[in-house]
Amino acid sequence: MSAKFAARSRTAAGGPVSRGRRDSFLLAVMFLLSSCASGPQSPAHAVPSDYYHWNEAATDRPAGWVVILPGSSGLSVFDDDRHYFDAANRYNELGFDVLVVDYKPAVRASANAPEGASPGGKIEWITERAIEWMWHEHPRTRTRQGVIAAWSLGAEGAMRLVNDDRKTKSLQIGSAVFFYPTNFEQVELDNQVPLLILIGDNDDVTPAAAARAMVENRSPGTAAVELIVYPGARHGFDIESLKTPRTIRLLPMFGPSATFFYDPDAARDASKRVSAFLTENQ
Fold this sequence. Notes:
The chain is 36% helix and 19% strand. The chain has 282 residues and is an alpha/beta fold. The chain has a seven-stranded mixed beta sheet with strand order 1-3-2-4-5-6-7, with helices on both faces. Strands 8-9 form a two-stranded antiparallel sheet.
């Protein structure tokens, strides 16, 4: 670790980040509306597995498997359609088979998707179906323990899974990694498997203070949580294509905004921490 980052990381456990309740509420509405939007209809012949992307590790003895759940915008972050596949490649290099789940079109292509479910409920449901598909199509994963790696909105479904002791056991989920998780549905964290959360203290989509409170308010007896808060880092701090800040607004030119920006120091440290976390928990 560089001296520069070591100095920054010592301040990572500082006080809560101040956020206006009104702005946070409006941003939550914006992201939930985008997550619930119907989007373009899947082709009539489409099936959910058309939106499952398999990346196999180059080994006969994989360390396990990872299911990647992207953020609200799906597999493309602005004009970057490589981020989640680059993440999959990094997990492959660590010896993990990877399934990237593009959950929005996968749900739309499902004949029996749960009607009336929340965005988090739909993500949870399709993730279960995706793991079952993976076991059938790639049998070597059936005897291995798995990891759920979720970004932003993907954590709304992932959190429901890691909170459910029965499902973590039946789906063989052994741990989870959340990058700047949203929790607009206000699900209480009751994780049954070890969890690593990585977030920036300048994140104006998923405030670090909310992540701290979520962790601190867990019920006694839950599994371990490691919360890493990066000073100055924003939403998307690990997305290398965001070297120029990108800001979105609820209304054009004014009103609450959300800024996405790459932080190379935070990204490098996060990568090391994910590797160490998986080594320890798989």
